[in-house]
Amino acid sequence: MAELVPTPAPAMRGTPGEQPQHAWTAVATIIGAVTVARAVPAGEESREVLGAALTAVSRLVVEA
Known about the structure:
There is one protein chain. This protein has 64 residues and is an all-alpha fold. The protein has two helices and no strands. The chain is elongated, with a radius of gyration of 13 Å.
């Protein structure tokens, strides 16, 4: 994980000091969302969890 997070950090919003924190937030959100989505019944609820995580992580990324 420590080697993964520096890769997306430059694409995150915020100052250079905030970017690694936002990258950790994005990675943790994605991992948590996949875990929760697998724990609930397949279908709409699972897609809702993943969609909410995508929306949250998208807010952390600088628009290209």
